[in-house]
Amino acid sequence: MEMALAGMGMPGTQVADLSKRQKAAIVVRLLRSESIDLSLMDLPEEMQVRLTQEIGHLRPVSRDTLKAVVEEFVSELDSIGLAFPDGVGKALALLEGTISAKAADRVRSQEGLGQATEPWERLGELDASRLLPMIESESIEVGAVALSKLKVSKAAEVLGLMPGVSARRLAYAMGQTSEVAPKTVSRIGEALVSQLDAEPPRAFDGGPVERVGAILNYSPAATRDEVLEGLDSEDKEFADEVRKAIFTFANIPQRIDPRDVPKIVREVDQAQLTAGLAAAMALEREKVSAEFILGNMSQRLAQQLKDEMEAVGTVKPKDGEDAMSAVVAAIREMEAQGQIILVAGDD
Question: Which of 318, 312, 328 lies closest to 278, judged by CA?
């Protein structure tokens, strides 16, 4: 539609006494009078200014004139077969979600466009653990501005990761940011984002500890124990970090808040829960977890599960491990959705 507005008034029009800007102004005024949601922000700023001025200077036009202008406008629209975005930046916006993020970043880099999103939007999407070293490396004043621009929940996470002295200093400095100019805030955001852009792209999303831990979470217990024993002999420190990242059925008592057990039980398929508990009761380490789960729910439900476990009898090792893995997967899913929080484990 912008192309049609910009092109109105070509030779051969029926309303020769009106300029093309006046005709565009009439069309815009008509659309607005019909309460049609119209955005002209994609037009060049100069064109927006002149269009606004024309609307302010125009006087009432006759019905015949309005009809002729509208017919010409419709004719302009019909003559446009297909419109393309004005510039590579708008082309990227058009293709958002269609091309990969890496391809989009490569286009921005080659075209010198910079990042598509506003700096503070990008920073707000980072994890608190990712923001922490960036803020700690800056002055107290810059860190205070950064925390002030983050969502309250995200700023609280970052503060929670800091030593008490640093958190108090930043909190006090945030109280002195009311006089900071908007341009200064924008420059700080751009400077912080430039640190992100200066970092080389990572081949993997998480670190090696998280990746190995995630793999071992879903590995059979025998495989997990064998791998950890091998890691102990090769790199004891790395092996200890991997153990902290692992969450298995046996870790439930140390990593789950007892108050969250009823929520977890509701999320797990009852047949799998029964089989998992029955299998765990026959194992040395997992038995403690089964007793922990049964001991932190209502007595009525616990007795019901015990009756079902007795009816199930002996569970095959493979079926029992699959059932316990299903319980762990449900817990992981609930953690990812923010329904529960895993207690930090040191063992």
Answer: 312
Classify 118 in phi/psi space as left (phi over 0), alpha (psi -120 to 50) or beta: beta
pLDDT tens digits, residue range 115-138?
545 778 878 888 888 888 888 888
- Using a 10 angstrom Cβ sphere, with 0-12 exposed, 13-18 middle and 19 or more buried, the burial of residue 181 is exposed
- Integer Cα distance of 155 and 153 in angstroms: 6
Decide: 253 and 329 in contact? Cβ < 8 Å: no
Give the dihedral of Cα atoms 257, 261, 264, 270; nearest 10 deg: 160
Which residue pairs, CB below 8 angstroms and at least 24 apart, start in 146-151?
A: 146/188, 146/189, 146/192, 147/174, 148/174, 148/177, 149/120, 149/123, 149/124, 149/185, 149/189, 150/120, 150/123, 150/124, 151/124
Angle at 62 between CA 59 and CA 68, to 5 degrees: 110
Taking only the tens place, the pLDDT of each residue in 84-117 is 766 776 776 667 667 776 677 777 777 666 554 5
Mind spelling out the 3-state secondary structure of 131-174? HHHHHHCCCHHHHHHHHHHCCHHHHHHHHHHCCHHHHHHHHHHH
Spatial contact of 123 and 193, defined as CB atoms under 8 Å apart:
yes
Q: Is the dihedral of CA 98, 99, 102, 105 positive or negative?
A: negative
Distance CA 120, CA 147 (A): 11
> Using an 8 Å Cβ cutoff, are 344 and 277 in contact?
no
Angle at 262 between CA 323 and CA 287, to 5 degrees: 45
Read off the DSSP letter of residue 300: H
Neighbours of 52 (CB within 10 A): 13
